[in-house]
Amino acid sequence: MIKVTAVRAGSIGEELGLTPGTELVAVNGRELEDFLDWEFLTADEEFTLLLRQPDGQEIEYEIERPLTEPLGVSVEPARIRRCANRCDFCFVDGLPKGLREVLYIRDDDYRLSFQYGNFATLTNLKPKDVRRIIEYRLSPLYVSVHATDPVLRRWLLRNPTAPDIVEQLSEFAADGIRFHTQVVLSPGVNDGAVLEHTLDDLYRLGTPILSVSVVPVGLTEFSKHSRVREPDTAECRSAVGQVEAWQARALGERGGRWVHGADELYLRAGLELPPEESYGEFEQIENGVGSVRYLQRRIREDAPLFRDWAGRRVGIVTGTSMGRLMPQVIAPLREAAGAEFELIVVENGLFGPRVTTAGLLPGKSIAASLAGRTGLDFALLPGEAVNDDLLFIDNMSAADLAEQLPMPIRFSTVFSDALEAGVAA
Ligand code: SF4
Question: Are 7 and 70 in contact (CB under 8 A)?
């Protein structure tokens, strides 16, 4: 059973008398467990729906509708599937105490992998989940592989019962499921020959493996430093060399580069980022793969729009990692906009300086960096630093931050999204 959370006015859902709180019990006699059942089992022109109204009354409807007419019903989000692993590099272990409770949840959920591109390990799948992935064609899925050697992978995940990932992927692939995969690189564990073996195994699985990203492990002051460390420059360079050798092979044999190093891998290696065309469709942009080249492309495509900022002085807030790469993004932006941009690099005061990503910047650190600055028409803040409720990781709200600052703020991920954006206040 799942609950209705909202019903659009004038929709079929409203005609049926559904209201927030209505329980959707079954479709065609099949019990509903979560949003996936709702979306997939109602994707027909005709079906029967059993529901229970808030007063307890059960009603069954025979529904007939053209597929072009949506039901207009929103349902409650799924209860997050918890992770069965205990990786030494887990971000949750690297969190300081006292943050929002939800941040301490280790999720490992194939449904969120399909819906939002969250990486999952597939170590907690039950036979029923396997059947659903195949029946509903949940593809592509985003999978954390890390290493294909089953023993080593179990060790990395700290999960002695983790199934063989190559077997899992190839069984799903036979049923038409496709995958974007990642390897979080832990030096001395899954780099070097192990990485080579992993890439070889994934490549052998053929075209169902749509892409692989190689991401250096990222730690905070609070991580388990006695058990895991970040790769050094030489180790990152070596991994880039392996990635690029596999890219050359894949490009020659399959017409696409297939495997990519995260921007952070190149940054730590002290190497220039690959050109824009090497990232294909930027399939792993959310995983920090090709962010800089993607931003440059968006600036080029959106160039005429930026004329609205002509003559302005704009602050661009970012973390220390992107701060080093930003000058190559700001140069074309300055040219397109005819505006002045000031880069404001903020060190993370909550996790410590080794956490360099803009998405984890606390509101307090941003407030401290912008306080007392004059001459800015407004400041652009990284959109990924706030959640849907506009809360930073340290629980500060965007409105509270805006109140403390001498300039208006706007959130942005690709610059052009801040052109029309209202100023948080
Ligand atoms: S798979 Fe590993 S890193 Fe991911 S949530 Fe679980 S323990 Fe943490």
Answer: no
Q: Which residue's entry shows tokens 């050094």?
A: 232
Ligand 1 in reach of 121 Cβ (< 6 A): yes
Burial bucket for residue 108 (CB in 10 Å: 0-12, 13-18, 19+): buried
Residue closest by Cα to atom 4 of ligand 1: 90
Does residue 106 line the site of ligand 1, with CB under 6 A?
yes
Is the Cβ–Cβ distance between 23 and 1 less than 8 Å? Answer: yes
Is there an atom of ligand 1 within 6 Å of 418 CB?
Answer: no
pLDDT digits (tens, 9 = 90+) for 178-213: 999 999 999 999 999 999 999 999 999 999 999 999
Beta bridge partners of 261: 214
List Cβ neighbours of 418 (8 Å cut-off, separation of 6 or more): 380, 410, 411, 412
Phi, psi for residue 214 in degrees, rounded to 5: -115, 115
Give the residue whose CA is nearest to atom 5 of ligand 1.
106
pLDDT tens column, 244-274: 999 999 999 999 999 999 999 999 999 999 9
Q: Is residue 71 a contact partner of residue 12, using CB atoms and an 8 Å limit?
A: yes
